[in-house]
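Narrative summary of target 7.
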Amino acid sequence: MFGYVVINKPELKIKDYDKYQEYYCGLCQSLKQNHGRRGQLTLNYDLNFVGILLTSLYEPTDKQYLIRCPLHPFYKKSVRTNQYMDYVSDMNIVLTYYKLEDDVLDENSLKSKAYKQLLKKEFKKIKTKYPDKVKKIKEYLDQIHYLEKSHCLDLDEIAGQFGHIMANICVYQEDVFKDDLYQMGFYLGKFIYLIDAFEDVEEDIKKETYNPFKKKFKDDHFQEYCFNILEMMISRSSFYFEKLPLIENVELLRNIIYSGIWTKFELIKKKRMEEK
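Modeled conformation, tokenized:
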């Protein structure tokens, strides 16, 4: 359920693309420094967006330096990080840990079980650091699990649970920005859940596993139906996004929330058209 909140690279200025890569590498380094190499494996684009958003809103002083990355060994990579990237690195671990836990429950995956054990120590540290936040995330994930097992077809109900998870992650602290961050994250989370279901619907039909779109998939206007719902979610999210007093990196963030988030939808749609 990750990897949908990305940039649209062709429409991004070079300087903004470079900045995005620096923060992405910064999140990777935060994961490594705070949670070891096993933590780096949890890296995802969605929480990189949250880290850049919080950085733009609270304007900390970035730590900027060069590293040698094993994936790019022939030149040094520029890295940007700060306390908000450290925060989202913690949330990365929490979401990954609970996703692995869900995989173990649903599929009895030995691979997920082993990786969950590797992250257990780090997860416990974060749970101690953010007890209320981790508790809320767990409660909403449990509700998702219950609704999926109950074959819930209410899109607002099921997607809203993941909406609350993203909303809680977007709210870094109790301040004047809290309500707008919560609402922005809530609708973004609903978008993520629903586009993930849109992508997985064929596989879920074959496997006879839960998907809220299964009954609609054979409809002639299925893709248009899904697009309209997703557009509604991201429109509400962007409404609250625009209420935040963002200056630094705002064009980069707008590229993601207005354009980048649709790149995966277009790829899924194109693939289905080709298969037909």
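Residues 178-207 form the longest helix (30 residues).
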